[in-house]
Structure of Aerobic C4-dicarboxylate transport protein:
Amino acid sequence: MAAPASSAPAPAPAPGRPWYRQLYFWVLTAIVTGVLTGWLWPSVGTALEPVGTTFVSAIKMLIAPIVFLTVVAGIGGVDSLGRVGRVGLKSLLYFQAGTLAALLVGLLAVNLFQPGAGVHADPGALRLEGDARQYVKDGQDQDWWHFLTDIVPDSAVGAFAEGNILQVIFLSVLFGVALKAVGPIGEPLVEGVHRLSAVAFKILHYVMLAAPVGAFGAMAYTIGAYGISTLTSLGQLIGLFYGTSAFFVIVVLGAVTAALRINIFRLLRHLREEFVLVLGTSSSESALPRLMQKLEGLGIRRDIVGLTVPTGYSFNLDGSSIYLSLAAVYIAQATDTPLSVGQQLGLLAVMILTSKGSGGITGAGFIALAATLSTVGTVPAAGIMLIFGIDKFMSECRALTNLAGNSVATLVVARWENDLDAARVNEVLRARAPHPAPAADAGDQGEVPVEVPSKA
């Protein structure tokens, strides 16, 4: 028999481990150490780039198989394929609403505080160089509907080799639907998928032990390569972006969770290890597998988590949406390019499309921004050079906000499906219990620990 689609029972509170054995403590320590290393010894920090990129690569190595196994297991365990279609449709509808809200918040903030006023940059004097030139070229070559055509991979193996999440989801849904359609013949395969999921998450457990080392290398490289002075040169824009993102998470997403009778601060605390990991690696993908585990641990069905979270990484990028509206209007203000209300709304309409399907792509924020400016034509695309130096620091905030947005989106879709037990969620959040494995038979219960050898 196939394993049920419902998640495991609520975990009982685990005996508390000392704070110095918690994963988030060691990742935070690694981040601080990395900042100091990159600041005091820039050449050493720059040389540590492979340490951070290798860890992120190890996480990305697992994302495609984990997404595939989770989606297939979720679809294989539902009692109706129609329910899968409903979950997908409801997810996309919420993603559109979330993207629009994020774009509007960013647009209001940049018009209210006007961080680009007084810069008076000459667009003709701006020269695209290095990676920025390639990002603009990619953006100019990118059509607004590219995410629709790119969803079909050239080969089944290629989707996994390239780590294209949209293509993996496409294959996963096809495989899961076919597995469900063949009836009893497919039940042993569904059971096998559940067992493979347990193995995949056990591998993730091993990889996560290296999270502090990866965060140290990534942060040391960022500070060593770009310097702390880069933060102060455009501090007003950085501060506005972080402040706007915090407002969106606490107020906008907080209002959504309040309607679900869930406290946003408890939810954020429950996901603290994932947020710290994202902060250290500047990649929201690094926390995707663990995020899916924890959301299932809140009692949300596997098929809802498996469809909503991975799809949200391409279609529900709240942080990237705030960045797009802030950056586009900032460039207009800095280059003294007048934008009427109608032109800004036109920018917003294009951003709703260009912000989709870019999750996990290097330079995705810049590519989407360049695609927007090239499509509209009212703001000089070369103006992205004004913010290119600080993009690395802003990418961390984008990733953190994207993570929060996709967590809330999953709760909303679960409620829409009448599958959200707010009492259970609050019980888990208050108890601060460890999240369970993806399914009741997965076999690996509990948080990913950080084993610290005791001194003799």
Residues 105 and 140 are 26 Å apart (CA to CA).
